[in-house]
Amino acid sequence: MKADPAVQLRLLDLAGVDAELGRLAHRRRTLPEHAALTEAEAAVREAKDALVQSETAAGDLDRDIRRLERDVEAVRARTERDRTLLATAGARQATDLQHELDTLARRQGVLEDEQLEIMERREALGVDLEHARSVLAAAEKALADVIARRDAELADIDAAEAGRARAREDVVATVPADLLAGYERKRTQRGVGAAPLRERRCQACRLELDRTALSALRNAPPDEVVGCEECGVILVRTKESGL
User: What is the pTM assigned to this prediction?
Assistant: First the structure.
């Protein structure tokens, strides 16, 4: 393949732009915010689970409190009824009513003790519930902060990529189709399409060329498109090549 040396030099501009685009793509993939986002999302899920557990436990205790309130009210109502009956009851009925009143009193005491215990547990759980809500709020804020940082980084990368893409289009417009096709083929195969020969060393693979390869390059016409025998990329000769 033939190409004017000045045109070959444009491949270095193109390779430079592609290297920048590669670095931007790598930066996009390896943003620390990606890992931070995963951790923040896990923290939110954990906080939500903890809150649900606390809310469920609180709901269970609230139902127990309401049940006990109904039971206590039922005992009180029965006690009031028996006291009313006791006022007009005969001796035998009075004995039965008094026995039932004693039983109801004991039952009410048991229910009220249980009610007090559950209310104390509910009060303690209320503290845990508020703590779980504050933990979730903090986790959600941390998640929002990470998302904001990630989005800002991605927007910066998007802008840089757009600028580099425009620069690439400008360079591509100056490169002949056959030379561009060869460059793109090498870039697909090797990851790098073209590199300069500097001080007898290919700047793509960083290996110094042997005497035979250097002799071949010296003897090749300036417009001959040559390649690195080690890595296969298009090798662009410059004043710094050391030939």
Answer: 0.74
